[in-house]
Write a structure and sequence with these properties.
The complex is a heterodimer of chains A (352) and B (946). Chain A has 352 residues and is mainly beta. Helices cover 11% and strands 55% of the residues of chain A. Among the domains of chain B are: 356 residues, no CATH class; 152 residues, Immunoglobulin-like. In chain B, strand 3 and strand 4 form a beta hairpin. Classes of the chains: A mainly beta (352), B alpha+beta (946).
Amino acid sequence: MSNDRAMLLKVTLRMVVTVLAWLCSNQAQGDDDPIFHLGICELREGGEATAESISTKFDICLNGRAGGQFSYVSGNSKENFVTSYAEGTGSLHVTEYFSLFAEGYRHRRFTFDDTSTETIESDSKMLVARIGNAALHGYSLTAGKFRSPFGIGIKDASQSYQYLSDEYHWSTYDFGAWVTWDDLKNIFFDASFVNESVPEGRAEREKLIESGDWGGSVRLGYDFSAIEGARLIGSIYAQKNGLRRTGVGFINVNSRGDTNWVEFVRTRTTPDGKVTPFRQIIKFGYQSVWRSASRWSVNIEEDRGLHRLAEFAHHISFFKHAEFNLGIMMQRTLASPYYDRWHATSGIEVFL
Amino acid sequence: MKLVAKLLLVFLQLNAFTDTAFSQKKEGEDSPAGEVPVNVQYDEAAPEESDLLQYSPPIEQLLQNPALVGGIESGSDALNKSVESLMDSLFYSMLDNERNIPITNDSWFNIGIDRRVYSTPSGSYVVTDRFKLGPNYFKELWRAHNIPINLGVDGRVEVLQIYIRTDGQRLAEQEDLGPIRKLMNNWFGLLPLAARILPPSFNQNELYDPLKQIETPFSFPFNKAGFIDMPIGSLKSYLISGGIRIPIDFGGFVDAPSRDLINESLGFSHSLPYSVFRRGEYRINVLRRSENIGWVGVTKTEKVGQSISPFVGSQFNVLQGALAATLFDWSWVWSGVPVIVVPLEINFELSTADVFDQVYEFDLSILEAQEAYSKAVQGDFSDAYLRYLDAKEKNIPTGVQFHFARHQDRNELISKNGPNLALVRTQRQRDLHSAEVEITDSDGKYYILEATQDVVDKKWDILVGEEEIRLIQTVELKVNKAVEEQSLPVVEEAESESAEDTDASISVKAEVVQQSTKYRLEAVADPYTIDVSMNIQDRYVDTDEYSSYLKLINFTSGIELSEAPSFERTDAKRHLDNKRRDFFVSPSDSVRHLHTPATHLGRFGAQIAMHFPYSTVKSMINAPDDLVWAAIGETYGEPENPWQSENYREALTTKFKWYKSFFAYPFRLFNLRSARADLIKEGTQITDALKAMRTLTDPLELIECFHRLFDTDYPMHLVRVLLKIVDDEALSKRVTFSAQPKGPGGREINGKYGKLNNMVVREGPQFPIPGRYATSKLKLSNFYLDRPREEKDRARIGKIQIVSKSIPDSVRSLDQNEKAEEKKFNRNTRHVFASVSVVHAKPDRPIKLYVRIEQAGRVKIGKLELIEEVIELSPSGSEGESLDEMIYDIFLTGPLSPFTGYMYDQMVIDGGEFGVTLAASTDGRIWSDEKSVEFRFERGRLLPVK
């Protein structure tokens, strides 16, 4: 990362902190019809939203989190690593039918091996304008920079887990358009067309013939009213250069808010178009709702024949906007070079 | 290990620390103002005495085996298609066991035992345990061009016991059982465990009491002692049957590439057997009506016909080899879960049948009746007939009563089709027949010509179980049978005595009397009428389905259902909450924001009856073609086209519509139908049948036309068309609802939905008083598997009130006097307390209350059943001044609850949403409908369901 970008990020963070401080003071004064919404944003009850319609003014929703996590690798201290991260999302709702969204992140990873490598990644994950709102009107058109919608895509695992996860390497954020249709009863459908690119370094690492091309995805979701809180999702993703990915996933959110999901993803060909033995990932996740300031999370991922990853973590919240987490993670390769690793992870995070 | 132990210790300490110091409490959570008692008043009408036919199928229909008739079984290794669903595969098939013992290469002895469970409109179940055995012979006679031509012969004896089972009855029965039998009935505890964790479609009654199934072959009541052992309301039946068939499997005609695709690529087997068959059955049914009254019915059937049964499917063993064990030299590998996948299955049977039914009643407290009964159940009814005559003519109290005998000469078309994909299944069963019926009852003999179509559409999926829509349309012609004797002159030519006399042969005239049977319409006010009945049963209905059922009832019957309660599709508050949140949701996160689902209401049932009097049927027959076509166009989905115009109907472009129907036909095999595509075909059939009737006077020809009219794939559309072309106001119509609220909708929605139960909506004049034939059919319907008997005296839950309540002060004196050390109740803690009012309760004796408590809310993939018990309660008061409705109080949680236990208490302390299902009974045998309520209970406060 260049110094200019680092400086830009610092300035941006300072601005965000300043705005947040102002907002907090504003909210504390008892504004019952706020422009700014923080954390998990909701329109005011009994205000802008009624059963028949939603009438809004100018609304801003901000959310973010930052923290650090230490991963202690059992039996091989040189593989211990530390991650620190900051992620933020913001949306600006000009009218009921027009909104702007932005999401960005900065991740730093430091390993304790002989080279003491430090890796820093930062990017804007999303910068889009949206016309319509599928959840309210049944349709929306989104354009800008985003990642192709595919599968469930829940990211509730720890930073260490996410870094080791296969899906981490799928990340492609680029410019395109995205349409969504929703019957407002059981079904939603979205389709996207994006000028894709693979993350820096991956093209070289996986010997891809090119690092990007146009691609697209379609995704169909169906909610079972018989199993309230359950959704089945099927997705297809394709790149012009040959990469094909299909997935089926299932989410269940129970009455308390505990969320379970399972997803099966099959990658059919390599990006250079040559058929290889298929890759198949099965992912499972469970995230309990906060109960008495604590919650549990479980994440499991198996990339058939390549690796297996599992994490079991406990989270404790304090002061409403901070969290301490403690977990155990298992990492096993299923292909040469074979190795098993057990990680003990611990971290702290602040969030809005 | 040390590291793990330390981490665990740190975690526990932190957890305890944060629980006390940093726990996040939402504002207002501790406010008692949030508490909401659950109070559901079941403002439902008492059930009416129904003069309608009952709608559950008779035993013969439930137990018919088209596969056997169709000759699908190509040998002893035939696919076991009794495994119809995944639940069957996983669990229920444990009670379906069949063994074929080879005798020779072509013959084997079949022995088997199985269980089927059917649900009834009242919410109870009918369990059918069947034992069968008999020899089979099957041989390929020869093979022509890869087409095997076979010969199959079989004989069979079957014994059945059929009984009503409710959850409450199942638990109440266990109180009288010894510990060993109780354990065995519950599969040593595995059954209750499975019921607690498996989806709602899992039914314990499918597997409960396996020993009773084994008793089946020895349980037939050949004498009074056996009869007294039968539960009241239960049925026992035995059958002797046999048949011969010649199946020809035309599956060999399939070309090699298609065969490879089906067999190798898709892994399915296929067959296309055509069969000519002849079968005979002799069945005796015994029904215990009350303490000493038993009915014995006999059915004799002889059938000759042909059938064709295309089939593509296979059995896959999922998770095969997933479990294995080795013990010394013995090794075992799990064969996996058998899953049947049958994309294409059709049975189509055309036959003529000679059916005889007869029903006698025996009062077994009288000696003569006991002797006659013992002979009757062995097939000899002569003694019963004599005892009946003694009673009728000599007024001797023999205790034997003859109800009726019916003889039918039927032309039948039976079909069954639909895919079964293990997780979902759809099936249509159609029975179309016309019959000449001779009935003998206590007033003498009379005749009816009858044409009936009976269509049953079933849908099943693993999540919510089965839903069924059944429509029966029947026309009855009251006729007199006349045997006409006709003298026919016959000319016999005498042999010529000589060749020369050939031209002048002597003719000898003689007369031969020839008898011919003629039917004439009876000279009564209503010589023929049409009756239509429709029955809908669905154990899991949400607001979407409820609304579509109301539309379907309105479409079929034209009855306005403004009295039926209506519901918003979704819970308005939840919908609004979601809207307020979803407004801000980022496009990248929208996938986990689920829709607000249609509100689950509970069980739904409806019985629709319509009577077309003679005048209406006559006007229907005489309706102008243009009017009929206009009604057809409107009903079948083309109101915009001028079907009433003959020019339009005769235009070439209209004739091209026949292609739509032609190309849509294959989809019907998979139960995908488009009324619009089949409009021209159906319309032509209807108008042709009506046109033909206008000039006919012979009742046999007339019934044949009705047979053709009813021969439709769209029975509801046909009824709608008939309604449109007659004077609607002259028809008697009625719809009777049954509803059991079970959803999370809270008191308002559940109470509103509960009002639907027993609601009757009528239109038009009164239904006519049932005639002789209708009365006979009603008697026969007592053998149908339907509602529990003694419906009128059943207990009924009138109101349920759930509140939170602390332990009352009155309990203090007891704990101080007796076990003061152990019972130091926390008076500040509140517990869930239920008050239940029960109609038809006995004030002087305790009532049995069935209680099931489950974790409710949105976890419906696997339910978590916490409690399922039957308890006895004494009344705490009465509802009003009448002692007919008593109130019973019970703590559902806390130390005074009869259900208290470590696990249960922990779940209650954790809080969350709970569902309580209650049913009441005065004797543990006949139970009320189950009622369910849901509530949220957290930290001693009762809150509305989220």
